[in-house]
Design brief:
Layout: H1 4-12, E1 15-18, H2 37-48, E2 52-59, E3 63-71, E4 85-93, H3 102-116, E5 121-127, H4 131-139, E6 143-148, E7 151-155, E8 161-165, E9 168-174
Amino acid sequence: MKTKSQTAGIMGKILIRPLVADDLTDLEWGGEYSHFRTVYQNTYRRCLDGKALSWVAIHPDQGLIGQVFVQLECDRPELADGKERVYMFSFRIKPEYRNRGLGSRFLEILETEIRNRGYTTITLNVARDNDGAIRLYERNGYKTATADPGRWSYPDENGCWHEVEEPSWRMEKNFSKSLLVKKDAFI
C-alpha cells in the first residue's frame, strides 16, 4: 500500500491538458472503449468547432489515464444551452488512479474554464449505482437535481447504432458569473 506522500508524488507527475487529435486512439484504452471511437471523433470535431471542451490526464509512464468531455450546447437545453449551462460526460479515470484526488483536479480545471467562459451551471448524469462517482461529485459541490432514465444511443466503430438504458441521477453545480478565476490557476 502506498503512503500519502508516495500517492502525492505520483499525482504530481500527472498532466491534465486539452485533448489533441493524437489522443483519440488512446481514449479507447487498449480496445476496451473502441466501441466509442465515433463518439470520441465527433466530440473532438465539436471541440474544434467551439461546441465542446475536453481534457485528458497523462501519466509520464502510463500514458492516458483519464478523460472528461463537456458539451457547451446540444439539442437538450436542460443539459447544455450554449448560454448558461453545460453538460459534462464521459468522465473516466483508470481504476488504479481513482481515489487519489485526480477526479477533483479534473473538476477544478474544467470548472475554472467553464466559469471563465461565463457559464453558471454544469450538469451531468451519473449511473445510480456508481457510488464512487456520486461521492466525488457531492464532495465537489454537485447536487442531485432529478432522476433520469439514462436513455441514450451511439454509433459504434462499425457504424451500428446501440441503445443504452442506464438509470441515472442528474446532478448540477451552480456558481455565480462573478466568481471568475485565473485561467491557468490549476494547470
